[in-house]
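Q: I'm writing up a methods section and want to include an example of the input and output format. Could you take the sequence below and give the corresponding predicted structure tokens, formatted cleanly so I can copy it straight into the document?
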Amino acid sequence: MRRFLKISGLLVAGLLLLLIALSLSLPYLVNLSAIRDRVSQRLSRTLHAQVWIKTLRVKVFLRPGLSAEGVRIKAPRYLLTVKSLKLYPEILPLFHRRIVVRDFSLDTPRLTVHLSQKGRGFRLQEFLKKIPSLPALSARLSRGRLQIYRQGTSLLDLADLSAEVSTQREQILLEASATAPFLEKFYLKARINPRELGLEGRLEATHVDLSRFRWPGLAWPIPLKKTDLSLSLAYTYEEGGLVAGFILTAPCVKPQGLQLISCAKLEGQLTLGPSGWEVLFKNFEFREPLLKGEGRLAREKGFYNLAFKVQELDFKALRERLLPFAKKSRGLARFLSRVKAGRFEEGDFRAQARSLKACFRPENLILSARVKEGALSLTHPRLEISGATGTFSLVTGALTFRGAAHLKGASISSASVKVHLRDRQAPLWIRARFEGEAAELLEVARSASKKARKVLAKLSASGPVSGEITLSGTRASPKVALRLRPEGLLLRDPRLPFPLRASEGLFRLEKKKITLSGMLLSGPFGQVVTSLEYDFSTHPARIAVREARGRIKFSVLQPLLARIPAMRKIIKTYRLSLSEADLEALSFRGPLSGKTLRSRLIFSARLASGSLYLPSLDLSVRFSQLPVRYQKETLGFGPGNFKIAKSELRLSGDLQLSQKSLSLRGSGELESGLLEHLYRRYRVDRRFRLRAPLQVRHLELSRKGSQIEMAFAIISPAGALLEGRFERAPHFWRVEGGHLAYAGEELHFSGQKIPEGFRVVLQGHLSGKSLSALFQQNPGLLGQFETDFRLDFHAQHPLLSHFEGRLSGGPVKIPYNGLPEIDRFALIGKGRSLEISRLEGRWGPSDFRLSGELEVVPHYFRFQARLASKHLDLPYLKEHLRKKGTGKRGPSWVGHVSFFVKDLRLTSRYRLSQAKGELFYRPGEGRVVLSEARFCDLPVRGEYVFGKWRTLKLALFRPQGELENLLTCISPHKEALIRGPYELRVEVRFSGRRSLWESGEGEIFLHSPSGEIRRFGLLAKLFGFLSPIDLFRGQIPSLEEQGFPYTGLSVTARVEGSKIRVEDAHLEGPGLRLFASGDIYLPDGRLDLTVLVSPFKTIDTLTSKIPLVGFLLAGKEKMLVSFPVGVRGTYRDPKFVPLDPKAISQGIFNVFKRVFQLPAQVVTPK
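A: Here is the clean output for your methods example:
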């Protein structure tokens, strides 16, 4: 026995040694490198990827197996690395270079998958079809990790992955667990039948945070931040359909951070098929937030369908959890912005849309429920409703509510709301009866539309009100109707110059129409009870005021009135300022425009005090206790007290705005300040300024446009009475009933001025003392006059003129330009003639004595007069008698005046003495015949015809005279330019239409045998031109120093047309002779003369000094040489130029030869 045991032990030991030897020698007996390469190549071809195997080992001891380490498989879309892969193949097939594996395990596998940008969705049925037939096999996986990316973004990351898979002939069993960032633990158990394409199993997930889960094509209907859910799901997939029952729970613990739900349980079933999917929520009960009910979510025929019945819901708590998710969901945000709180019962929620996200848009859902303590918020119009109790529904965007509610600061006893949350063109209806603060109602009105917000933006209201508000129309174009009963409502608006408080009465706003009935309005402006209707639907706005009475303060009300253009113009133009006014009555109906206000406004009031400015008088007027009334564009006032520049008057009147007419009545006293201002304003001559103060017994003034009528009776401080009636219109004035009385003297006067003439009636006796008692200074009556005279003067129809009575007196100053003084006058009217028996006086420096007769004949006024004067100044009389052109035809005159004037001043330089002649005149023309006169010691006769054609004839003859006397008289500086005797003979005639110099004829002759020229500008400039020439050097005298004595001077000329032709003019002096001829043009004095200047010299000197001369005169003993010069320009600015010999005509040369009596010959140089 012991031997057996010993032999058995040796056999066992030998077998062990053999096994050890085999296990150690198996790697050398089997070619592992060839197997590794073969496995790598085969896997590369199969997987279309690069495969690396770092080490491949065979283990025989204990359990035969094949171990691969450092396995790496890389493809374009994935990367798989395995730390250790253990295969347990059958041993014998290895000797035949075949691998048969029944069991394997993976240690630390890591699979990274990169999905394409647009990959196909996962199809479970296709996945099952692609599972190949597998032999019986079992596999284990430990410490694995699966990562899935798309464009660098991680979609799924499963860590600590462990799994066991076993394959049988017709099924695959899988059990796996893992962790992920979006859940704490994941467990999956499945049985897969590849042949029948079936799948069933169970799935569990704990502490799931859906906000961290990402997968292609998956989008949550609402943005999630954090969840803590546990899910238990049993599923079955067969025949292309998936059915899964699930239970979803959330723990009843205090949430860490914000969670969508907590303390909740949800049971349901998911059905997924080829045509769609459906989720049934058989029972859900949430405590936080409170939500109980059941529902269904499905996708069918391309639409998402939601149907939920809610037994109870605390929407305020649910809204707090949904509010953070609304940032990425416009539909949810819009819904949550409208519905803010409420406990809903018997709720029904239905929705249908193309996308799940769109199901939460208001226009795609139907919602109805009973609500308590509900809160709604609308933007257009803005309504913040709280404490709402009633029935609430939301049908495809249309929100409906009936019940009661509260606004901030207001109580709504009943309300009816229907508004579409999305369609601004849908019908709008909101009606509410309320009591509360007006400020809340104003906010609602502002939010009705952009236009309402713009109009009411700066309006503020405070105070209790009650009433009813109705909003209709559409959200895009709402219509507001409002009924208010204010109880001390205070309104403020920058557009109003003052706060406005409304009490009592009724306020209505409907269809752009405001109605006030019996409302008391008060404020800094005072208080007014009014009833009115204001319609601003038209432009301009229409207003109807039926009643307005009370006391107003104009200083506060003025900025409001200034907004009306017509009133603003009146206030600005007249600087109207009022203190207080008692408004007695006011009515108006029509558009709110300046024209309608003027024509339809009716009011009456009493003004306590005020002031205004009169632009036409440049005066400020103060008044007090003034009644005013207005109707049909007529403003009536008074009687009231007025104070103007310290003058006190009591006035009344009417002002017609349409016709711009004024009527004024009153009496009072005019002080000097007011009168002096009026005198300066209207430039009243000091001679006609009345004394002050003036007692105005009676005054009536009517002004219509430019027409004025005035009746007055005034008394001066000295007791002079002036009364009458005055009327003025364009081209017309009239004075009637004029009466001036003082100290027993009386003058009755009347007059009328019309375009055709005037009428004057004077009767009485008056002296200068009466005028001095009325005026500040005597206006011109230095003596006295008596009159009983009537004058009718018609310029266009002379035969209608008439003179009757006597008028005499003097001296008197006529109020005319230059103030002519009449020393004595006596006029007698004799029907159609007026006899001037005596008229003596002075006018400026002139004096006159006139007598004659004025007679009326058909078409003319004919005069015959005799005039005598010591001195007559024609420039002065012409200046003061010149009239401005009025475009009107004056009277036609015809007549004759014989005159004798000792000294007749023609111009500032020239005058006539002992002038005697006659003047003949008829319309448009006249003739003055001067029979005798003297001009600068020259006897003158002549004739001057004026009219359309003017003619002047002059005849002067002086056989013997002195040039010194003549030139001293006519020279500007009264200097004796030339001395010597002379003989002068002039007979000329000038005529023309525009100028006398257009045509002329006549002769001029002047001769002086000897004398001396001291100053003569033209001759001096000619000498200055010749003096530098060698021919005349030493021969030219200096007129300034020594003069130029001459032995002969003569001029013979003729007037031809508009020029004087000098035929023969020569001057002979010591060693020098001058000869001239040519033309002098009138009236500018332009010269065109040829002058020959000749000194006496020998032929040798001339030929040596001047080889070329103008021409040579040859004689037996002497040669006379003349130098030709042309004179151009004017007398004051002559131009001298040397002339070529060819320019000297033969006629001039012959005259020259005849004058000097010398032989001559013209030599032209080659």
